[in-house]
């Protein structure tokens, strides 16, 4: 039970911080000696952080659902130069962007899923990739003042590709999408908010796929109440992490996470060399 609480805290705290939650779950499971039931345990914990994002951004989620519904009820021509006249509701544009990003991520994820899953068995390799995340965070500088509703479909495709890169354990999903958003000219807070909203469909879809291996949890002696506890802890801590990261982003201090990734990566590498 305590192990699931620890894993729930780790997942909730690191999913939306640019430090790779997958890497931290692998590290925690390795050093705590927890049996890994495929990826089903990670899927349950990830769904907890999806709930956190939905709760924290509920007004945005409602607008996006309304925008997505409108898009499916009338024929539209989507181009990178689409104007507001073609998107009467600005959240239609955001919904289209997130759909495009999710499709790109899903296609790349399915194409490279099996070779990348093999990387989940290497704790030291994941630590090296966490150090790479730290290097990427050095480029987290604001380059424009665009808002989420001003982003285009090509922006969504780029963000989807960046999100797919984070399938590699140790590469932060939130880190790569925030950095890409900044490179596309979004404000820091807007890039971060979009990163959170993009996470909802892609993490939900990936987690549902991984739950096909749910029986592995029982094989490791993990009970349903323990999984529920991990899910709840992940959701609660994830909500707190979202609020904390938004405040850090407003102050423009993502460089702190780069230093953390380097230190954590080196510590794990040294610890696994024994």
What features would you highlight for this structure?
274 residues, 12 helices
Beta-strand fraction estimate: under 5%
Overall body shape:
globular
Uncertain residue segments: 75-85
Mean pLDDT: 84
Helicity range: over 70%
Whole-angstrom Rg: 18 Å
Main sheet, how many strands, which sense, barrel? Answer: none
How many structural domains does the protein architecture include?
1
What order do the SSEs take from the amino end to the carboxyl end, as H and E? HHHHHHHHHHHH
Structure report:
It is a single chain. With 274 residues, this protein is mostly helical. 71% of the residues lie in helices and 0% in strands. The protein is built from twelve helices and no strands. It has helices at 2-14, 21-32, 40-56, 58-72, 90-117, 123-136, 153-165, 173-183, 188-210, 215-219, 224-250, 255-271. The two termini are 29 Å apart.
Tell me the layout of helices and strands:
Layout: H1 2-14, H2 21-32, H3 40-56, H4 58-72, H5 90-117, H6 123-136, H7 153-165, H8 173-183, H9 188-210, H10 215-219, H11 224-250, H12 255-271
Helix pairs in contact: 1-2, 1-3, 1-11, 2-6, 3-9, 3-11, 4-5, 5-7, 5-9, 6-12, 7-8, 8-9, 9-11
């Amino acid at each position: 039970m305590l192990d699931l609480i620890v894993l729930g805290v780790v997942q909730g705290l690191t999913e939306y911080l640019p430090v790779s939650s997958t890497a931290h779950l692998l590290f925690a499971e390795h050093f705590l000696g927890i049996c890994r039931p495929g990826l089903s345990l990670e899927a349950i914990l990830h769904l907890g952080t999806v709930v956190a994002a939905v709760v924290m951004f509920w007004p945005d989620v409602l607008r996006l659902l309304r925008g997505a519904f409108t898009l499916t009820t009338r024929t539209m021509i989507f181009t990178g130069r689409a104007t507001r006249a073609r998107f009467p509701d600005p959240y239609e544009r955001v919904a289209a962007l997130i759909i495009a990003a999710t499709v790109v991520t899903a296609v790349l994820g399915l194409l490279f899923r099996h070779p990348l899953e093999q990387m989940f068995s290497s704790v030291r390799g994941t630590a090296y990739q966490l150090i790479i995340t730290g290097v990427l965070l050095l480029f987290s500088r604001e380059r424009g003042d665009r808002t989420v509703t001003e982003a285009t479909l090509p922006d969504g495709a780029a963000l989807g590709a960046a999100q797919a890169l984070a399938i590699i354990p140790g590469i932060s999903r939130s880190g790569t999408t925030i950095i890409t958003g900044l490179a596309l000219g979004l404000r820091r807070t807007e890039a971060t908010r979009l990163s959170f909203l993009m996470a909802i469909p892609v993490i939900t879809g990936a987690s549902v796929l991984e739950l096909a291996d749910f029986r592995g949890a029982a094989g490791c002696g993990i009970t349903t109440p323990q999984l529920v506890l991990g899910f709840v802890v992940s959701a609660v801590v994830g909500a707190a992490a979202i609020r904390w990261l938004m405040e850090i982003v407003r102050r423009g201090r993502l460089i702190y996470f780069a230093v953390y990734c380097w230190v954590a990566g080196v510590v794990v590498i040294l610890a696994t060399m024994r």
